[in-house]
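I am still learning, so can you show me any protein sequence you like together with the matching structure tokens, please?
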Amino acid sequence: MSIAPSSTDDPARYRPDPSVLTALRSPRLLTREALAGLVVALALIPEAISFSIIAGVDPKVGLFSSFIMAVTIAFVGGRPAMITAATGAVALVIAPVSREYGMEYFIATVILAGLLQIVLAVCGVAKLMRFIPRSVMVGFVNALAILVFSAQLPQLIDVPWAVYPLVALGLLILIAMPRLTRIVPAPLVSVVLVTAVALVFAIQVPNVGDQGELPRSLPELFVPNVPLTWETLTIIGPYALAMALVGLMESLLTAKLIDDVTDTHSNKTRESWGQGVANIVSGFFGGMGGCAVIGQTMINVKASGARTRISTFLAGAFLLILIVLLGDIVAVIPMAALVAVMIMVSIGTFDWHSVSPATLRRLPKSETAVMIITVAVVLATHNLAIGVIVGVLAAAIMFVRRVARLVSVQREVTVESGETVARYTVSGQLLFASSNDLTTLFEYANDPERVVIDFSRAHVWDASTVAALDAIQTKYRQRGISVEFIGMNAESAAFHTRLSGELGTEG
């Protein structure tokens, strides 16, 4: 009995396990999802505030945006258990709008970015994920881990000495707790115990309340009052497009990473338009927009064991409850407790296998170079999207160089039916990088009156190669030598027939 390969468009491929209904019917699973959501909500608060500051807006803008996007994506998103909220990458991209044009244009930019993400989703932008090599993904993950860790350093430098034992206590709990039980997420236990120690012993250390004022009311509908003119579009358009691309890239890469962690599949197209819808809703409630947040997603999936959209929804719901109703309690949570959680997230996120001496010895140097380039660019720009783009370009260049070296031409002179024939066998992938030197590999002056070139071991990929083959024919004909191309596969032959003589190389 044969089994047909599953299609990437098969709905069963993306069916989550466990499903939301399964989790709702299981007290154990539902408790796990709820506790995971609570931990994520706590971890979102200080980051949302800091991202608001980066974007140049009030802290409540980032907090409300994180709430709205998490709740919205839980209903329209594609990757179960992935967390979407305000992010630093998006804040950096659109910060100039709030600074130079004000809040109305800022919100209009967020809404337009959401619309563009929906358009890009319809155009199939998610399919471009297949062109991101493994070395770039490893670089993305490692750079992300380093960024998450480095973001904690301001909370560890020039602070009261009591911060360090509290962070150490938090790390100890995070390491030991999973070995004792996984019923309650270790990050939640760590935050609660570290906070309790700080309160019981009246330890004065920086807390969540020091990061910014928490809102006291619910978000309200916000319709930006901007003129619907071409001038407005020229102002916000470039920023909106940049935000849409950065947000989609980070979200799709995060979804792919979580696919690997959970050994499941997710619908990247649905995730793409889901991100767009979430940004639009966020904008209309005065939020700054965002995308998938890897740190909190890793807390949710890896540290807390969440697997459904229930945790994503509850992360947003708990966030609203914490900042609006329990703001005074949340404000006293020591930053040391959250720093310990994020340090463990960064350690767990980093691909340590990728930098082990044994791995580095086995991998081609080009693969390692691409990973290092990706990490270096991300750390230099603090922008994951730019790092990934540069990494993909570096991988493409190195691939082309490697392919170009694999092209070879072998010559053999034989006598057939009393006629001397020079037979050339071309092997390899013929494209612009390899075909530029192809014309120099033939002995035009020394060949007999008949030349046969066999392409049965080669493939013609582009117009540069066809132009090179036309040039070879021209050089032989100028010497009165007959040249014959044989052995091309159907695709190469059709491509060559269509373009040969039309590229201006003869005449």
The longest strand covers residues 419-430. Residues 1-7 have pLDDT under 50 and may be disordered.
